[in-house]
């Protein structure tokens, strides 16, 4: 495992909160993470690796993983996870906007990250560029819910939720942004990861696979 270091983003509060949240993910979320990575092969780019929660789930068919995590405290935890991974993982502190790859990737993985980037449409256009033709985007993301849950999400997004949780916006139409970036969605579904009565605005997740034509 090697590391490219160009730290550009710091969020000390979120860097303390996220490792705790990741360590206490429900089994439903963990199962969706595993499904999101199943069958990957070749060169894989992960955007927003956090503390490296996905690394143990990378299949042996992955020849190389390149993981972006610009928050330095999270990246330090991710380095430990990368060193223990069963496939080679290169960690970079670059953001999507800064990152340049000498060769295209076979797949890009986004897990609970498109909700937090400032410009998801621009990020997805860059992700599109990183992929080879026919390459795949795997995504597991917070998604805008309907009805009362959707109203709760809009309230959360307009108040304290993004400030506390690393700019997380819970009411984004992420799949529309994926299609608008030029991807063809091959499969997608919504899953509830907490009971329907839970007041959390992030109870519903979107799992999908999209292809660069």
From TrEMBL:
Coiled-coil region(s): none
Native source species: Mycobacterium ahvazicum
Transferase keyword on record: yes
Keyword DNA-binding: no
Protein name listed in UniProt: Class I SAM-dependent methyltransferase
BP term (GO), one: methylation
GO MF term list: methyltransferase activity
Keyword annotations of the record: Methyltransferase, Transferase
Pfam families, per database record: Methyltransf_23
